[in-house]
Design goal:
Length: 127
């Protein structure tokens, strides 16, 4: 039950961002932000956050310090490499790179990471 309560803010932010992008689609385009790139970034960052959360949650239950540290570094490196690869692939495959959408997605990365850490600390406090 507590795990569901911890994951709700992550999924809530995902739904909120996609809803706002859908409602303000034209307005975002006039401001120079490509909503498709931003929503794709939101999907990728949300999925990475969920996978990272799972890795860190398993690491919290590890019996040795080495297992715990492996999960922490593994989740960090996974997020770093995947985000970097996605940005490089987008920049090389796209004719026009939409910088505002990339920077907005990077800001979302920070928000998702904050929510993830807050939830993990809440779980740690409960145990």
């Amino acid at each position: 039950m507590i795990l569901r309560k911890v994951l709700q803010p992550i999924l809530g932010l995902f739904i909120l961002v996609n809803s706002v992008c859908g409602l303000l689609f034209k307005w975002l385009q006039t401001k120079g932000l490509d909503p498709f790139v931003f929503m794709t970034g939101n999907i990728i960052v949300c999925l990475l956050t969920l996978v990272s959360f799972y890795m860190l949650y398993k690491g919290m239950k590890a019996k040795t310090t080495l297992q715990f540290m492996s999960s922490v570094y593994g989740s960090f490196l996974m997020k770093l490499v995947v985000c970097g690869l996605v940005v490089v692939l987008y920049a090389t495959l796209s004719d026009v790179v939409n910088s505002p959408a990339i920077f907005a997605s990077l800001f979302l990365y920070l928000v998702y990471t904050f929510i993830e850490m807050k939830g993990l600390l809440l779980l740690l406090k409960k145990d």
